[in-house]
Amino acid sequence: MVSDMGIFVSYTTRDHYIDRKLLESVSEVLSEYGSYYIDLLHNDSIDKQRHVEQMLSQAQLLLLMSSNSINESEWVQWELREAKRNCIPIIAVQASFDREETVSNLKFKLASKFKKPIRTKAEMR
C-alpha cells in the first residue's frame, strides 16, 4: 500500500509530448496511490527551485517520466542524483508520443509495484 507515500514526479518538457495534458493524466492515476507532487501542476511558490528541493527531500518515491531528453535535462539529472543520494527509490515509466500508451505504461508499472490504498466508504463520497 502506498497511501502515505509521497511520490515526486520527475520529467522534462523539452519533449513536446510531456505537456500539461499528459501530466494531468498522470495526476489522475497517481491520485489513486496517495500523495504526489508534479512541479508544473503544483508549484505556485515564489522560490520555485527551493520548493522543488523541499518536495523532493520529503518524497518516498521518485517517478521518472522517461522521455528522449531526460539525459540532457540538468534538472532531471539533479533530481535523480538527489534521489539516489537520499536513498529514495526510483521507478521509470516510458513516456511516448502516444498519451494513452504513456498512461497505460504508468498504470502497469504502478500496479506491478504497489497495491492501491483501500479507501473507506467515507473517503469515496
TrEMBL record:
InterPro entries, per database record: TIR_dom, Toll_tir_struct_dom_sf
Native organism: Desulfotalea psychrophila (strain LSv54 / DSM 12343)
Gene3D superfamilies referenced in this protein's UniProt entry, alphabetically: 3.40.50.11200
Protein name: TIR domain-containing protein
GO terms classed as biological process: signal transduction
One of the Pfam families matching this protein, by short name: TIR_2
Domain TIR residues, every copy: 7-96
